[in-house]
Amino acid sequence: MDITSLQDWFATPLGQYVLAREQAWLDRTVPNLFGYHAVQIGLPGVDLLRESRIVHRVTVDPQLGAGVRAAWHELPFESQSVDLCVLPHTLEFCGDPQEMPHAILREVDRIVRPEGRILILGFNPWSLFGVRRLWSSREAPWSGQFVSLVRMKDWLQLLGFETAGGEMQCFIPPCRTEIWQRRYAFMEGMGERWWRVGGAVYLLDAVKRVQGMRLIAPA
Q: CA 118, CA 129: separation in Å to the nearest integer?
């Protein structure tokens, strides 16, 4: 089965398994984040902000089905106008791996207000899912440019974001059928206890910090 779209992959049994755990983390996280405007960049067919208390929510994507059709690195929002921004594997499927992830993060940094939050969902290259990419790099999600958690944190730190929380999820092998997923379900508990860095996906919560300016009056 040749899957070219990440959204199509999320409709498969394995994709549904991953999505359910990502959605559960978001459902626990977003109700505690407040503001006026929230933006989801990518995956227009999935409402990842369904539990958010923020009234004005919109999905941005170049494809049909999004609330706003726009390129991910050219967001049609005013600077420092967004309180919450969610990036569901956006940086891994954005085209040029050398330029586009940085361009998207800079654009997100532009639109997010000081003390605003960004939630990043990413595939972990140092996991069983990362190993799976070695012999299936033409299909989604294995065709994406997986970015390690350490590198992601470095990128965010350079932009002035500070990690506020997060988790690793999905420690089972990338099994295509629900039967094998249930058979390997015991690995979820084992991974959370003894192999936290080996989850297939990382879920990262970061806050935008802006250093205050202090005026010094003349003596």
A: 24
Residue 190: which residues within 8 A CB-CB, separation 6 or more? 171
Global pTM?
0.89
Residue with structure tokens 């994709």? 15
Give 79-92 pLDDT, tens digit per residue.
999 999 999 999 99
Interatomic CA distance for residues 127 and 150, integer angstroms: 14
Which residues, 6 or more positions from 214, have their beta carbon under 8 angstroms from its beta carbon? Answer: none
Calculated CA dihedral for residues 136, 139, 143, 144, nearest 10 degrees: -130
Measured CA to CA, the distance from residue 62 to residue 94 in angstroms comes to 11
Structural contact between residues 154 and 120, judged by C-beta atoms closer than 8 angstroms: no
Rounded CA-CA distance 148/151 in Å is 5
